[in-house]
Amino acid sequence: MQAIPLGLVIVPTAGEAITIASLLTPAQAAAIPGGVVKRIDVWPNPQAAGIAYVKAATPAGANIVAAIPPPTAPAQFPWSVEDEDGIPYEQFSLDVESSGDGAGFLTLWVD
Q: How many domains is the chain built from?
C-alpha cells in the first residue's frame, strides 16, 4: 500500500466538521483510484486540548464513529478503518471538542 499523508488537521470551529475530501490537493485526489482507499488512520494529536471526532455521513446525518482523546502515553495507537474492497473516504469528516484544535494526524492508504 502507498501512504497519502495529510498531516495535522486543524478544525477552526468545533461542531463544524471538515471533510477528508476537502483536505486533498487535486494531485492527491487523482492518486486515489475510484474515490476509495484501503485504510484511513487518524493519530491522536499530543497538543490537543480536547477530544477529536471521526464522523461518517449517513442518510440521517453525520454519526460519530470514533472519539480520539489527546494521548496520555507516548505509545498511543491510531483509530483505523480498513477494507480490502475500498472505503469511500468522502463520507468521513473530522471534528473537535475545542475550536482551533488539531483533530489528529491523518493518513490515507491506497493500492
A: 1
